[in-house]
Amino acid sequence: MKIINVPFSPMSISPLELRHLRMLLAVRQTGSVSRAAELLHLTQSAVSHQIKLLEEFYGTPLFARKSVPLTFSPVGNRLLEMAEVVTAQIDHAQRDVQRLLSNDAGQLRIAVECHTCFDWLMPAMDTFRNHWPEIELDIVSGFHSDPVGLLYDDSADLAIVSELEPADELAHHALFEYEIMAIVANDHPLAQKPHLTARDFKGETLITYPIPEHMIDVVSKVLKPAGIACERRSAELTIAILQLVASRKGIAALPRWAVQPYLQKNYVTALPITKNGLRSQLYAAMLKPFAEKSFAHDFIQVMRESSFISLPEVTLLPQPVVLKNGNRETQVTSSSRKRGSM
Q1: Residue-wise pLDDT tens digits, 42-86
Q2: How many CB atoms lie within 10 A of CB 17?
Q3: CA separation for the pair 295, 133 (Å, rounded)
Q4: Of 216, 203, 312, 193, nearest to 251 (Cα)?
Q5: Computed from CA positions of residues 265, 271, 273, 278, in that sequence, does the dihedral angle turn out positive or negative?
Q6: Which residue(s) pair with 282 in the sheet?
Q7: Burial class of 98 by CB neighbour count within 10 A (0 to 12, 13 to 18, 19+)
Q8: Does domain 18-99 sit in CATH 1.10.10.10?
Q9: Read out DSSP for 164-228?
Q10: Which of 251, 269, 273 is nearest to 260 (CA)?
Q11: Phi-psi region of 101 (alpha: psi -120 to 50; beta: other; left: phi over 0)
Q12: What number of other Cβ atoms are within 10 A of residue 131's Cβ?
C-alpha cells in the first residue's frame, strides 16, 4: 500500500474513533488483518480501509506489511498503547453502568458435555472474573450427556452444547466451529495419506473418551453412514488417548486445539477426516430469564473472543439465525444439528 506522505500536524483533527482502537487491538490479538476482521464481524476490506485511513492521516505505515504475525511500527505501537488504555476504561465504565441499571448479582454455574472444553473455557473464565469479580463462577463437576437438563433442574445456569434444542424456555448463543482431526501414530501407514476416509477406519480400534457412541462425530457423521463399525477403547484423559495412539493401540478423532501442543512436539500425526474435513460446532444454552442478565451477555462475548484468539483454526459462528420449529420461528444462533463429540 502506498502511503501519501503528508506532514502530520498536531493541529489536525484526528479521525480516530473507538472502532479504530478496537481494530488495532484485534490485529494485535490475532496477528493478521483477515483474522481481525472475523473477530470484529467485519469484512477484510472494511478493516483494510480503516488502516488506510489512519496511515494516510499520519503519513506512515502502522505495520510492517510482510511480517507474520503483523508487527506494529513505532507509530502503530503508540496508537496501540492508547487503544489498550481507552478501550479498557470504556468497557469498565460500560459494565459499571450495566451493574447500576440491572443490579445483577449472583452466580454463574457452567455445565459442559465435552472433555476438551476446559482448554479454552478456563482462560475465558479468568477474563470474566476480572470483568465481574462479584459473580461467583463455578463448573458443575463431571461429564454431562444432557447439560441442558441441568438448566431445568436449576443445577446449572449455562450449558456448553454441540446441538441446538428448540424450546420456548431456552436462549441459544453461537460460539465457534472447529475441525476434528484423525490422530495416528507417526509410523502408522495411514500417516502418509493426505486425509482419511471412512474405509481407512475399518479394522482399526477407535480410541475415544468414555461417552455414548451417538455423541461421537466421526461415528455418527462418517463411519455409520458408510456402514463401518470399529472396535472402541476409551480413556478419560487426552494425554492417555495420545499415548495409546502413539503406541499403535488404535487411532483417535479429536479437536485440533486439544492436540496442538503434541503436534508441535511431533508426538503424533493429525490428518483431516474426509477430503473436506470433519467440523463440529459449540453453542451456549441458557434459560431465557438468565440470558437477559448483563454478565451473561458479557460471558458469551468473552468465550467467543477468547476461543477465537487462543485456539488454532476455529471459526466464529454467525449470529443470529432464525431456527424454524414447526410453524413458529425462534431466533437463535445457528441451525439445528446432530449432537457431536468433543
Answers
A1: 999 999 999 999 999 999 999 987 778 889 999 999 999 999 999
A2: 11
A3: 11
A4: 203
A5: positive
A6: 176
A7: middle
A8: yes
A9: ----TTEEEEEEEEEEEEEEE-TTSGGGGSSSB-GGGGTTPEEEE-S--GGG-HIIIIIITTTT-
A10: 269
A11: alpha
A12: 15
CA dihedral over 109, 115, 117, 119, signed as positive or negative: positive
In the predicted model, is pLDDT for residue 323 greater than 60?
no
Whether 260 contacts 312, CB under 8 Å = yes
> Count of CB atoms within 10 A of residue 147's CB?
21
Instruction: Give the integer Cα–Cα distance in Å for 160 and 148.
Output: 8
- Exposed, middle or buried by CB within 10 Å (0-12, 13-18, 19+), for 153? exposed
Are 193 and 273 a contacting pair, CB within 8 Å? Answer: no
Residue ranges of domains in the chain: 18-99, 104-175+281-332, 178-278
Contact of 7 with 1, CB cutoff 8 Å: no
CA atoms within 13 A on the CB side of 317: 24
C-alpha to C-alpha distance for 14 and 213, rounded to whole angstroms: 59
CATH superfamily of 178-278: Periplasmic binding protein-like II (3.40.190.10)
Q: How far apart are the first and last CA of the chain?
A: 43
Secondary structure class of 279 (helix, strand, coil): strand
The CATH number of 104-175+281-332 is 3.40.190.10
Segment 127-154 shows an average pLDDT of: 87
Closest CA to 282 of 334, 323, 236: 334
Confidence band (pLDDT; 50, 70, 90) for 324? very low
**Residue holding cell 492417555?**
240
**DSSP type of residue 16:** -
